[in-house]
Amino acid sequence: MQDLKPSTVAPVPSAPPFSIGTLRHLRILCISEVGWLDTPTLLADIAAAGGMGANQYQVPWPPFAQLHADNAAGSAALIEAETADGRRHRVLFDTGWNPAWMQRRFAEEGVDRLLAQGAIDCLVISHEHFDHFWGIGVTLKLCPSLPIYIPAGFHPEGLDLIKRHGHTGPLITVPPQQPLTLFPGCALVQFPMQTLLQVAGENVLYFEIADKGLAMVTGCGHGGVLNLLDYARRTFVGGDRLYAVYGGLHIAPFDDWNAEKDQVIAALADYGIAHFGCNHCTGALAVEKMIAAGLPVVRGKAEHGSKTDLFLGNGEVLEL
Question: Rounded distance, CA 314 to CA 320, Å?
Answer without folding.
Answer: 18
